Amino acid sequence: MMERLEARILNLEEYYRLEDEYDRIKDSKEREVRLELLERIMEAAMDLDVHMNEYMYDQKMKELQERGVKFEMMDREPVVSQWDRMFDALVSTEAKANAKHYSDQFRWHLFSFELLNAVKGEDAGTKFDAAEKDELFLFFDYDDSCYRVTGADKLTVKDIMELQEYGKFDSADRYFFDPKRKWCYIMTHETEWCGPYFYHL
Description:
The protein contains 8 helices and 7 strands, in the order H-H-H-E-H-H-H-E-H-E-E-H-E-E-E.
């Protein structure tokens, strides 16, 4: 993961030390001037960070389009309903209730609580890259964005990680699924501990 530019440009520890030091200046006019200038430095670094990420995202999307991968926005509700019918419906309400500490807060808990036996970690990514996938769907938990991805056979985990790094596909949990071939690949917001998961019916 690329380090944020403000952290690369500024010594944040020193920045916060200066902020505290300026906060204690008795001359209120001088205090306000210094704090405002310091804040402008941070805002400029953050603006540069946003600009760079947007630029890198646009470049990555152009590269994907040149390779034949296209993301088309679509209505989320029917896609999520289809995922729920295909995967969530495999586990009974009773089985979910009997699973110790199970929570339906996230759909991927079906896999983290092993109610469905999925391939995990790097092996899941390997399965995704190798999966036959001319078209798939992408949706997120707690985000209204949803995409139909065509030319998906050319989309790799590395591509997804780069899009996430540039801040556009970092919307918590990402669900990729192919309803025709009946598999899903999930990258969670807790990837260090949970996931990614690949599950095939």
